[in-house]
């Protein structure tokens, strides 16, 4: 599996221009640390449908700007999210269940929100990403079009939508 075929874009809130090169690479590490802070000692996400499914998240390991491991429990499963800055400049997120890799996404911050791309995506400018996360990292939407393995837990429209449970 490879990252998207173009370099990532990370929005610079101070200038309004995208970050490039080393600055973009550093931003992936900063985002990793922001996610570690957001998850903190534990949060929960609800699946945005009528199923009542809830996933609890808890930081298991955090190496600042290098690696984040998050324990995920819910729906009868235990999984680990592994978050690392990819050599490509994207932030890579992998979901591992029972030692098996089930999901890989590459994150960039194109504007205030985050785009999430599957491996080997063209990620052409102007193309909508099949995954999105809110600027406050309190909602997440992933399309079956980008990750067919999500079909079993996606809604009738082909999306898995997660919302942060209020703290």
Polypeptide structure, described:
By secondary structure, the chain is mainly beta. It has one domain (10-164). 11% of the residues lie in helices and 42% in strands. It has 1 helix and 12 strands. The chain has one helix spanning 21-39; strands at 10-11, 18-19, 43-47, 54-63, 67-74, 77-85, 91-97, 100-108, 114-117, 131-133, 139-143, 159-164. A 10-stranded antiparallel β-barrel has the order 3-4-5-6-7-8-9-10-11-12. The protein has a two-stranded antiparallel ribbon with strand order 1-2. Strand 7 (91-97) and strand 8 form a beta hairpin. It is globular and about 40 Å long. 28% of the residues are buried. The mean pLDDT is 89.
Mass-distribution shape: globular
What percent of residues adopt helix (DSSP H or I)?
Answer: 10-25%
SSE string, helix = H, strand = E?
Answer: EEHEEEEEEEEEE
Low-pLDDT residue intervals, each spanning 5 or more residues: none
Radius of gyration: 15 Å
Question: Which terms summarize this structure?
Answer:
167 residues; mainly beta; ten-stranded antiparallel beta barrel; 1 helix
Give a topology summary.
Layout (H helix, E strand, L loop, with lengths): L9 E2 L6 E2 L1 H19 L3 E5 L6 E10 L3 E8 L2 E9 L5 E7 L2 E9 L5 E4 L13 E3 L5 E5 L15 E6 L3
Antiparallel strand pairs: 1-2, 3-4, 3-12, 4-5, 5-6, 6-7, 7-8, 8-9, 9-10, 10-11, 11-12
Quick gist of this model?
This protein has 167 residues and is mainly beta.
